[in-house]
């Protein structure tokens, strides 16, 4: 069975999606049943890095959403119009939608989802929040046993990158923003990220799924990070906090409290350690307590992974019965191999004599086990502890060295051997 | 439509599942269609905390798996037999299975899944690994775009609890184990946890899903934590590491390297911060990079959440078309409320005069804003910075105080106001 899809847009995310679909081996077997029929672009003659028939590309986007052979539309063009119009048209033609368009969904979700209900098609939106983190589908499908009470997230990579660097370097906001723009971590017009609009779109989407109610975007509180100064960063650090742009939605007795603000986070909080462009989302509920999901919040591969996950899920439903994502799909046994390389920690109890470290080092060297750290501690009487951390070495070499070391007259005991990550 | 289920077992997890199912309001609407028909127990006369008809309970477990009205069997009795026999019988009767039984699946998965394939039923196993973390279903359904390359996890809560306490307190293994047993974090016979058997079962299950091949349990390397001494804990800390029991599976050119060992983890690694009974699992793949999932790895509520998630998923498939987990299920708008309470950080630039802190404190006090921390820093010339961190206070009280403070003749500027998590 082949499932025919059309793409709207061939920018960073679209290219990532096509790269996955045209190179399916080693990925989910359903991918091999997906056929890219048409891709809508601004310039159909532009050279592309992907190996597709040039005939696949068209500037006539309406022809894609009206093509009767296409079952699923992947919208990765972004922006409000014409994305909205094309998606509505596609739904009207009974096509399923996979989209990464958070701005569109946060503003026109009602119109899109109501039409989708009438036409009994799916609108999948995993890629709209959290990049590669499967947070949307986890909320939809795997936390349904719970009364969800709160969402707390770092869901804008650009601001997290800037704040992380301000903490690390003590640099000021405008300098680091300029550098982030130069490195491609921030847009030329950074307003959507820096002033919290992007995070507002995303928390509105997450909250609407978690709490099963629409969220009017205009009612989401919003504060960006422009006013977070080096003084606050330094003072927060001194007090045991880091400053992060936090998106938060909480169920309270009167309704839902929802907003985006820079907040001081205690350093021991799980979100405090989330640095750079990584995203993380903590979900609280009864009875589960708190679960935290972290991963790349943006980028071609991560976002494409989310788009394709949605595609696989719609394809799985189209090819039921016997849901291929929930059944055991394999039958063979794996080739299990012994660990071949590791980094090791070893503690040797030895006589405290000159030359002991040299003896150990010589034996390790003979077996090509290179050492990162060697030191002696806890000398007591004529006994010493020698601690060794190796570089990444072959397991067989390491264990042969240890066998030889055990024969040393100065060796009293191998105190411990542990692997190092 | 009502979907009829039977439970095998009514211990901690079974009770948690029944508590969720008998109190469905505020959870996923599909729960209201699930009807518990029979529960198999050892002693049907034992008083139960859940409000079910005593007739629901039976000691005749075979009668449950042979009951033609039952569509889904939830196996939460644990152990290899008679769980294996009952599950096979239920599958033979074309019933879907939801199970938390990692030991059974890791040993008899082939037999169970092959029979399930023949009878076209689902065997759902979310609760077998990672407690409330939806890792099994995420691997099955949402990472299929990727070529997965590695799994790295803390998947045994007991050992992580013991190692975390050894790091915090410097206590030795046997004392902390005894205390963990007293507190219910370790079993009377702790072998399955302490010696790594439980983690081996779980990593074998995860690897078989991630890499789509069966893993012979006998080929999973295994090392427990009995030999991790206070010396190693202290030395590791000094070198910038923490010791964790790590379950790891990696795709290498010759096959799959898979095992469980105590390992030194660099403190900056995302798994290093996972303390107590929390579980965390990092999945690596191309193109996604790395995603990390963390949450309660055990406990009644968390495990029941996973069991019920599986139940919801099977029910959703039984009640298709129009997959109720993937469509937009809500139509109303949420009641959005302004934030009512928060903890605040404020920095005031003031004249450096005696009594300034007193003035600020008096105003805050008048509006019932109680202060956690007040201090002055960076005096330069006749200007000082006063930093205030409040307790959790009403937003309206805080903002009114700030308005009053702005009127103080000594106040030069409100330098910054941020919320504190």
Short description:
Chain A is α/β, with parallel strands linked by helices.
Structure overview:
- Two copies of one chain form a homodimer.
- The first copy, chain A, is built from 13 helices and 17 strands.
- A six-stranded parallel beta sheet of chain A has the order 3-2-1-4-5-6, sandwiched between helices.
- The first copy, chain A, has three domains: 3-131 and 304-318, Rossmann fold, CATH 3.40.50.720; 135-296, 2-Layer Sandwich (Dihydrodipicolinate Reductase, domain 2); 341-420, Alpha-Beta Plaits (2-Layer Sandwich).
- In chain A, helix 3 runs parallel beside helix 4 and helix 4 (102-119) runs parallel beside helix 9 (197-210).
- Chain A is 34% helix and 29% strand.
- Chain A has 421 residues and is α/β, with parallel strands linked by helices.
- Chain A has helices at 12-21, 61-65, 83-92, 102-119, 135-141, 157-169, 173-183, 191-194, 197-210, 230-238, 300-318, 356-366, 395-406; strands at 3-8, 34-40, 57-58, 72-75, 96-99, 123-124, 147-154, 221-222, 241-252, 255-266, 278-286, 289-296, 336-337, 341-351, 371-380, 383-394, 411-420.
- The mean pLDDT of chain A is 93.
- The first copy, chain A, is globular.
- At the A-B interface, helix 1, helix 4, strand 6, helix 5 and helix 10 of A face helix 1, helix 4, strand 6, helix 5 and helix 10 of B.
- Strand 17 (411-420) of chain A pairs parallel with strand 10 of chain B, so a sheet runs across the interface.
């Amino acid at each position: 069975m082949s499932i025919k899809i059309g793409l709207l847009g061939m920018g960073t995310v679209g290219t990532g999606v096509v790269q996955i679909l045209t190179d399916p081996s080693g990925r989910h077997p359903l991918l091999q049943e997906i056929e890219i029929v048409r891709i809508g672009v601004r310039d159909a003659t532009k050279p592309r890095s992907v190996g597709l028939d040039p005939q696949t590309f068209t500037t006539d986007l309406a022809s894609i959403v009206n093509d009767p052979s296409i079952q699923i539309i992947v919208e990765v063009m972004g922006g409000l119009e014409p994305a909205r119009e094309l998606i509505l048209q596609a739904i009207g033609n009974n096509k399923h939608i996979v989209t990464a368009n958070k701005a569109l969904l946060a503003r026109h979700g009602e119109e899109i989802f109501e039409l989708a209900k009438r036409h009994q098609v799916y609108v999948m939106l995993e890629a709209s929040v959290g990049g590669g983190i499967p947070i949307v589908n986890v909320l939809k499908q795997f936390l349904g046993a719970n009364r969800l009470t709160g969402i707390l997230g770092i869901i804008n990579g650009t601001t997290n990158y800037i704040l992380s660097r301000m903490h690390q370097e003590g640099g000021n906001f405008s300098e680091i923003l300029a550098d982030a723009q130069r490195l491609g971590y921030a847009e030329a017009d950074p307003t959507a990220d820096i002033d919290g609009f992007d995070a507002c779109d995303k928390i509105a989407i997450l909250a609407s799924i978690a709490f099963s109610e629409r969220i009017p975007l205009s009612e989401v509180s919003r504060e960006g990070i422009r006013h977070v100064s080096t003084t606050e960063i330094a003072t927060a650090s001194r007090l045991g906090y880091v400053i992060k742009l936090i998106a938060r939605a909480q169920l309270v007795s009167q309704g839902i409290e929802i907003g985006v603000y820079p907040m001081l986070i205690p350093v021991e909080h799980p979100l405090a350690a989330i640095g750079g462009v990584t995203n993380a989302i903590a979900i609280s509920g009864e009875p589960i307590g708190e679960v935290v999901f972290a991963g790349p919040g943006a980028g071609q591969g991560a976002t494409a992974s989310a788009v394709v996950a949605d595609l696989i899920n719609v394809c799985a439903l189209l090819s039921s019965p016997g849901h291929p994502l929930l059944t055991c799909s394999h039958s063979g046994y794996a080739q299990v191999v012994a660990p071949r390389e590791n980094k090791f920690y070893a503690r040797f109890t030895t006589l405290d004599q000159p030359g002991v470290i040299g003896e150990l080092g010589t034996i390790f060297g003979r077996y090509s086990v290179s050492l990162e750290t060697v030191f002696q501690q806890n000398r007591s009487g004529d006994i010493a502890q020698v601690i060794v951390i190796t570089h990444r070495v072959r397991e067989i070499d390491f264990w042969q060295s240890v066998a030889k070391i055990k024969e040393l007259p100065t060796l009293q005991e191998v105190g411990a051997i542990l692997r190092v990550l």
